[in-house]
Amino acid sequence: MKKRRLSRRPFYLASNGLPIDPKNVPALIGKGYALDHSANHTKAVMYYNKAMAIDPRYIADLTHKGNFHIGLGNYKLAIMYFDKALAINPKNVDAATGERQAQTALRQLR
Which residues of the chain have pLDDT under 50? Predict the structure, then answer.
């Protein structure tokens, strides 16, 4: 089965506050990202979870959830999401970078 490439347009539209299709994973992630950056973390994680329920292997959602948890100081949970993304695509730069940041922050806590 050929992997289909999803458009980034829904992500852009959602992150700019426009209505979204509740089954569109990039749009849900975009909405979560926008809410996360406006410090509405509770709603942000709700949109990330909706996207993950639809497609648990969507790397952008995994990396956004990892970054979300870094922001909250939940480094072990962040590493878990980055590891899931890297298991799907070991060459994903965002996931590898996020995992390194979380590992570094976790070591500094010890």
Answer: 1-6
